[in-house]
């Protein structure tokens, strides 16, 4: 009998709980939280007085989870990123910021979960933001008393919500593509 050493098997696959993935989610979350800080303050002040301006910027809250999902392409990355964003937002939006961001992260993850994280096409990001912000617009329609406004204002309210989501999806995909090209999230530049 010989005592030959066992070969060491290295894990090559990335998992959602790998250190690199967690740190990437944290970095994306911090960056998104810092970008969102003025929007959170502005949104709180303007949401009751200028709902159309508020709706035009609602897509900004989707940037962090979109970048995380497209860059890392792993389950749970949008949710983990949104937890960090919520923590960063607490001084500006209160403790509800974490709950809000977790709901956003879960909503952005859901379509990818339904595809079992196998479809990463731009159209799924676009569809996700359109559906999410249409549902959000429906949820706040009464809060903003939009039924008391002219039909053209109501149309603008819905259109701005959906267009804001499309702009967020496009910008998020561009940012993640540039980060990927720089080697972020993969471990090496692809340049």
From TrEMBL:
Endpoints of the signal sequence: none
UniProt keyword terms in alphabetical order: Membrane, Transmembrane, Transmembrane helix
Membrane spanning residue stretches: 21-45, 51-72, 79-108, 120-144, 156-179
Highest taxon, organism lineage: Bacteria
Protein's name in the database: Substrate-specific component YkoE of thiamin-regulated ECF transporter for HydroxyMethylPyrimidine
């Amino acid at each position: 009998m010989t005592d030959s050493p066992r070969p060491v098997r290295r894990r090559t696959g990335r998992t959602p709980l790998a250190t690199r993935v967690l740190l990437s989610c944290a970095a994306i979350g911090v960056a998104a939280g810092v970008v969102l800080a003025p929007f959170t303050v502005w949104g709180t002040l303007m949401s009751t007085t200028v709902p159309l301006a508020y709706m035009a910027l609602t897509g900004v809250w989707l940037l962090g989870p979109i970048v995380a999902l497209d860059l890392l392409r792993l389950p749970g990355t949008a949710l983990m990123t949104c937890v960090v964003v919520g923590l960063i937002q607490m001084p500006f939006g209160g403790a509800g910021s974490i709950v809000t961001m977790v709901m956003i992260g879960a909503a952005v993850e859901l379509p990818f979960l339904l595809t079992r994280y196998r479809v990463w096409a731009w159209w799924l990001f676009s569809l996700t933001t359109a559906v999410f912000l249409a549902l959000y617009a429906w949820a706040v329609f009464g809060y903003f008393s939009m039924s008391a406004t002219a039909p053209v204002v109501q149309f603008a309210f819905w259109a701005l919500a959906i267009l804001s989501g499309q702009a967020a999806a496009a910008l998020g995909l561009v940012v993640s593509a540039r980060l990927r090209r720089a080697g972020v999230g993969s471990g090496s530049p692809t340049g």
